[in-house]
Write a structure and sequence with these properties.
Elements (H helix, E strand, L loop, with lengths): L8 H11 L5 H14 L7 E4 L6 H10 L3 H10 L5 H12 L1 H10 L5 H19 L4 H6 L6 H9 L8 H13 L3 H16 L2 E4 L10 H9 L4 E4 L2 H10 L3 H13 L3 H7 L5 H10 L17 H28 L20 E4 L2 E4 L17 H15 L2 H12 L1 E2 L1 E4 L2 E4 L23 H17 L4 H16 L13 H6 L20 H10 L8 E4 L13 E2 L4 E3 L6 H7 L4 E6 L2 E7 L5 H6 L5 E9 L10 H21 L8
Parallel strand pairs: 1-2, 2-3, 3-6, 8-9, 9-11
Antiparallel strand pairs: 1-12, 4-5, 7-8, 10-11, 12-13, 13-14
Length: 655
């Protein structure tokens, strides 16, 4: 300890602030002792998921079972104590305590002995998963009303010869006072809480599924979650910020998957003006190429959604054309397809070839195919007002922007949704769509700043609009690290039968994902030189049914597209992959498609079918070797400076 160390004015100012939390030598010394010990505890568990796409039930189940972690703990503790059925029941009780209790009561399977045995098993589970944390952190998670009894149950033992009767009486009284359900729910919740410390969502929370709002509610209330934005997330951020092209895009996708309820019911978006316009314009148009992907049994509703789908698609194509004209630096003039229509709207020229359109009814193209009609202007303005003034949507997107970024470095892993744009030779591509040359980490850092500024900027509307236009580019631009393709052929898919026009060529990154040398160069770009460093990637579903391996480049790149979205499961053949990082290594989990919450509760069905290590550490990893450890060591250094300041009289102690 440097007792003779003299601190300057700025240092004293900082240490004085720190002294408000640790007012004397005893308090600061106690904290140094505690933090120093924490450094030698096992690394906390991280959970990585991706491509949730609004499928809250499947996502929720994977979170509740921690991709098999809970089941593994049960096996570890009770493999020789409980039967297979009892272990399955305990697991389901942890995942869905309220629902499982109700189901068991309906079957008349609960009595006092069951309560006693179950509470003891849950105490064992909570102790086990909480053993990686100090007592202070465990106690902070206790519900206030049950704090004292939980503290005794978890930190005392019935085998203590002085407290055995005392301990058993606690449980007897819980049962006698009919508090068993409450303590079971509390212990199940604590088990899930401590099984996973950090949750990383590697992009695409929104679109397709109808419960993205529920996913966001869960994340907002999670103890420690972060988000690496996906292309669908960026579309919603831009829409919430008021970008017309992205507002139209979000509404179009909602109509395409019959998911307008997310907009109307969850976020209070007013779609009445759009519905009115769609009925007026396409009253006698069957809009057969705009029938939603989801099955709608009611014919009237199906026809209405199809008309809405077409009306908003046309608005989107117009908005995108206007945006492209405004930004020549995007080099996307070839995507202004509407100006290439024939005068009778039956044909279009794309890249020198003329194609017949599947649909030529364009009543809003009379003056100009890329200019909004007065009726469309009204719809656009009302949609913009609705998106930018939805309290719930703004709350969710604010959280997503605050907790999110294009990429994140976490414990030697680089997390990003899409790609790092590469040239055809595998070198990192220099891009110019921001008006200056940028590539790799520098590009992703700049884009993160732009997205945050685009959402939060309120004073300079010109800067805000520019940043929001960049978000649109991130949705579909050729050098976007979130999109990862040369063009988005949405118009062609709706209007042209020739499937060769639908092709979207992927960035060279996807060609080189299995090339260890190229992956090493990307890791180096992010200053990762550790031999255990990994790239963790989402965005593209892993075609497991065709034998594709999610682990690539000799284990240095892992694709964890969650496969939660039902349409993708036809391609993948499974429910996707997630990843667990614990003190022993990295485990990848393969999932089966989620059937239903009811099935999970009543039949105790699991999604996780297989977990296996993709990396095993030579020795168990401690907190000291993690990002948290680095932060703790800095805190210890600051606290030692405060201790010195106290001992040398540069700051006065308070008793």
């Amino acid at each position: 300890m440097e007792k003779s160390k003299i601190f300057d004015g700025d240092q004293i100012k900082y240490l004085s602030l720190l002294a408000k939390s640790y007012p004397n030598i005893d308090s600061v010394s106690s904290k140094i002792i505690d933090l120093s010990a924490v450094l030698h505890m096992p690394k906390a568990t991280e959970h990585f998921v991706s491509d949730v796409h609004g499928e809250y039930d499947a996502f929720g189940h994977v979170i509740k079972n921690a991709s098999g972690v809970i089941k593994n703990y049960i096996e570890e503790l009770y493999s020789k104590v409980l039967t297979t059925d009892e272990k399955s029941q305990l697991a389901t009780l942890i995942y869905y305590p309220q629902e499982k209790l109700y189901h068991l009561k309906e079957l008349n399977l609960i009595d006092d002995d069951w309560y006693r045995k179950t509470i003891m098993n849950l105490i064992g589970m909570t102790r086990r998963v909480g053993s990686k944390y100090n007592r202070e952190k465990v106690k902070l998670a206790f519900p206030r009303d049950l704090y004292y009894v939980l503290e005794e149950l978890l930190f005392e033992s019935p085998s203590n010869r002085h407290k055995g009767t005392y301990y058993n009486t606690l449980i007897d009284q819980i049962i006698e006072l009919e508090m068993g359900d409450k303590y079971i729910i509390a212990l199940a919740t604590l088990t899930k809480r401590f099984a996973v410390e950090h949750l990383h969502v590697v992009g695409d929370i929104y679109d397709r599924g109808d419960k993205a709002c529920a996913v966001m509610d869960f994340l907002v209330n999670h103890h420690d979650a972060d988000i690496q934005w996906g292309n669908h997330d960026i579309a919603w951020i831009g829409a919430a910020s008021g970008n017309i092209a992205l507002i139209a895009n979000v509404v179009r996708i909602a109509a395409r998957y019959d998911n307008l309820s997310t907009l109307e019911d969850d976020y209070g978006i007013n779609l009445v003006p759009l519905i009115t316009l769609a009925m007026k314009l396409y009253k006698d148009d069957p809009c057969k190429d705009f029938i939603p992907k989801a099955e709608i049994k009611d014919q009237t509703e199906r026809e209405l959604v199809s008309k809405i789908h077409k009306a908003i698609s046309i608005i989107q194509f117009k908005a995108e054309a206007q945006l492209i004209l405004e930004h020549p630096e995007f080099k996307m003039d070839h995507r202004i397809l509407l100006n290439s229509l024939s005068s009778d709207h039956r044909y279009i020229e794309i890249k020198g070839t003329v194609y017949e359109l599947l649909d030529s009814n364009f009543p809003t193209f009379k003056e100009s195919p890329i200019v909004f009609t007065p009726d469309e202007e009204v719809v656009v303005e009302k949609l913009k007002y609705s998106f930018t003034n939805s309290t719930k949507l703004q709350e969710h997107i604010k959280f997503m922007v605050n907790k999110g970024s294009i990429y994140k470095i976490a414990n030697d892993n680089v997390l990003y949704h899409g790609c790092v744009p590469l040239n055809e030779d595998g070198s990192i591509k220099e891009t110019n769509f921001l008006g200056k040359p940028l590539k790799g980490k520098e590009l992703l850092d700049e884009l993160t700043k732009i997205v945050k500024a685009g959402f939060f900027e309120q004073d300079d509307l010109e800067i805000k609009d520019y940043n929001n236009d960049i978000m649109w580019y991130l949705w579909c631009g050729p050098d976007s690290p979130l999109f990862g393709k040369d063009e988005m052929t949405t118009f062609e898919r709706y209007f042209i039968d020739d499937k060769s026009t639908h092709k979207e060529r992927k960035n060279s990154y996807y060609k080189y994902r299995d090339n260890e040398k190229i992956v090493d160069s990307i890791l180096k770009e992010f200053n990762i030189i550790s031999p255990i460093g990994k790239l963790i990637n989402g965005h593209v579903p892993v075609k497991a049914s065709e034998g594709e391996n999610p682990v690539k480049a000799n284990g240095k790149l892992i694709v964890i597209d969650g496969g939660f979205s039902k349409p993708y499961q036809k391609v993948t053949g499974i429910g996707g992959f997630t990843l667990i990082s614990n003190s022993y290594g990295l485990l990848i989990a393969q999932h089966q498609p989620f059937v239903s919450k009811k099935e999970a509760v009543e039949s105790e069905a699991e999604m996780t079918t297989k977990t296996e290590f993709v990396l095993k550490y030579d020795e168990r990893r401690k907190v000291a070797s993690t990002d948290l450890g680095t932060n703790i060591m800095q805190r210890i250094s600051d606290l030692k400076d405060l201790l010195t300041a106290y001992k040398t009289g540069q700051i006065a102690e308070k008793q």
